[in-house]
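Re: weekly structure request thread

Next one in the queue (142 aa):
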Amino acid sequence: MRRVRCVCFVFLVTTAAVLSLLDVGGCAKLHLPGALSKLKACRLAGIDEELVCGKLTVFENREMRTGRTIDLNVVVLPAFDQKQKAEPLFDLAGGPGAASTEAAAFYAGPGKAYRRRHDVVCVDQRGTGKSNRLAIPREKTP
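Done, posted below.
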């Protein structure tokens, strides 16, 4: 469990560093580096503004940086003040199976204040939402 937390932390720090370098103002003119280039301008149901959405491909084992990769579903709600933008905020849903990207409507509505100077990044963690669902065989109980 500790290793999983460490891997998640490294992923989040890396993603935060990359996203903090992005200028997502004017989503139609996105220039995203590396794996983030898969993210594109998008619209989500119930949200009346352009966002940035897509899959972020990461190594399943970030320490080895080889082998199997997994896709994580990501939605970025851009900061309103792109000139004095601070570090991005990450929304990671809690609870089994909860998808963070489903919270995007909150940050487009009642939670807009969070976006004054921060991009808000909603990441469906592995096995949640549209991110690489886990297939775990169930044991039969007597």
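Residues 3-31 have pLDDT under 50 and may be disordered. The two ends are 29 Å apart (CA to CA).
Next request, please.
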